[in-house]
Write a structure and sequence with these properties.
Blueprint (H helix, E strand, L loop, with lengths): L6 H17 L3 H9 L4 H22 L11 H8 L4
Length: 84
């Protein structure tokens, strides 16, 4: 069965991706995020949009990577900040 046809497998894959995003940030990244008022949910949402490197770049330089629709990482992080 393909993952598209298997909701349980999709959930397992989503959890694995979430853990990979969380583990891709260093303690320094987490400290910078907290100092700027961003939560774990914001960091993960930002990584979903632009990868951990895009989030890190935003935190360090203010550069806002965008997806092909023009949504930038700051918008995504602000939207999902304090979600959980």
């Amino acid at each position: 069965k393909h993952s598209v046809d298997n909701p349980e497998l999709q959930i397992q894959m989503a959890w694995k991706l979430l853990k990979e995003f969380k583990n891709s940030f260093s303690p320094l990244d987490w400290n910078k995020a907290r100092n700027k008022g961003y939560t774990e949910s914001a960091m993960i949402a930002g990584a979903w949009l632009s990868g951990a490197g895009g989030v890190r770049n935003f935190l360090n330089t203010g550069y806002k990577a965008q997806d092909n629709l023009g949504t930038d990482v700051k918008h995504y992080m602000d939207k999902f900040n304090k979600l959980v």
